[in-house]
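Lecture 7 notes: from sequence to structure.
We start with the chain below.
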Amino acid sequence: MTAAAMEPRVAILMGSDSDLPVVRHCIETLKEFGVPHEAHVMSAHRSPERTRAFALRAEERGLRVIICAAGGAAHLAGAVSAVTTLPVIGIPVASSPLAGVDALYATVQMPPGIPVATVAIGEGGAKNAAILATQILATSDLALREKLRAYKARLDKGVAEKDEKLQKSLEG
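Predicted structure tokens for the same chain:
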């Protein structure tokens, strides 16, 4: 059974469909780890009741982590975190003249009691959001833990190979 066919454990919410190019990196990384997920367009400002209803029902639907990507005012992650006890991860998206710094500040500056784990702006942040969600799920899933260990080993091997190449180029 594929990750998409299994009951989703991670929901990815985008403030706008224009966030999809960034969010694709999150989706692809979740697929790489075999994490069942779903994605939706919801807005803290343009569809607040729909967003609230989704967040309120998320846990009973079996979701375990919610990832929210938004640019500009970027209130989506905070609005979701305000009404759920599930972990919420925020991805700031560079969609304004401020290159995502406004979204970063809006996502990371939550009041006490409304936590949002915030990753970097853009594509790298989207990938890290998926890895963080996988790590959260892996606290109770040995198979995911093993996939993460293998992933980290591949990262280490890649760095060692790059260092070896550098050392050879410095010799010559």
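Points to note: The beta strands are 10-14, 37-41, 65-71, 88-93, 117-118. The mean pLDDT is 95.
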